[in-house]
Amino acid sequence: MVDETMDPIDPDAELMVAVQHGDSAAFEYLLDKYHRPIVNFIYKVVNNAAEAEELAQEVFLRIYRARETYQPKARFAAWIYKIAANLSFKEAARKRRLRFWNWNHHSGDEPRVAEESIADPMPDAEGRIITSELGRVVRRAIRSLPPNERTALVLRRYEDLSYKEIAEVMNCTEAAVKTYIHRGKLHVRDCLLPYFEKGRI
Amino acid sequence: MNCERARRMMARKASRDLARHEEQVLADHLSVCPGCARLENELERTWSALGLYPTVEPSPKFLPGLRAKLQLERPTPEVRWTWPFGRKWQWAAWAGCFLLAALVLTRTESMHRTAPTPVQTAKTAADSDRADEQFLQDLDDSLQHSAADYLSTYDSWPGMKREAANFESPAARPPATTGKKESI
Prior knowledge:
heterodimer, A: 201 residues, mainly alpha, Rna Polymerase Sigma Factor, Chain: A, Arc Repressor Mutant, subunit A, 0% strand, B: 184 residues
């Protein structure tokens, strides 16, 4: 059963324990509840809708494969976001390496083509997402954050995880999480300064 | 209170780590410092503006695709029935490798057993010296016989028989070491 040291009894962790005992309906419930937030979280880290969906599928596959060894020591949400964050970081690092390789090994106008093919395989999906100019500015600001600040800010602002849970996800202290979030906020504020001055926000 | 401390307190206020009396101190500073008051206001509006980040709705293919992948992960009876057959071959291959390794080991061990030990090698060297001496002795003997045969060829010549009787072969000479005399 669920670990007694866990603060409140987490119903999702209980469901995962049920999955461990062969309850496939419990897994369907978790899938239904978490697939949107996980896709959105990964999207904010990797900045690509198609890749976000692919990685989100991998997250659920890993959870399913790990059901036998699952131990409900922390909240289920923290666990699933940790897996998603690890996968997203790896993917982001792979893309950085690929971009670096393209920059080093191609001349003149070639890197542009390679970069576009990495960044936007689904332009219509991107078009569906972007709703306003401010949305684009915010997106660009978050995109330009360092990975730690971006992850902490996204988990706090959009996924509503506690500082303790974010610290678990990121393998750092709560104080470090607070610092990351504050720095991230300051950076986004710098990006939005022209809009503050125009009074559009 | 200076502006730097006020800004640190703003960060702590956002994470709800500020005590009540500290909140009052910060509010007092903000009321007299327009720069810090503006920053506080902009940070609050930034937090609201972050809500403008567009959300992604997963494509209609996402859940069916994931369920198909999950289906492959689930063990089916057919899969369980087919695997043991394959494993038998794996076990047979492993057993064959094991037998081969055992055979090679046994052969190697027997080769090591027949190989001469260092003591045996020394013994053989002594034997070899003795064999060399024996060979030299045999060589001397054969030389004596050859000389006798050669002289017997001229046996019919007059005067040669006498010379042959006086002929002294090298083997007939007494050896320097032993002083032993041997006749043809």
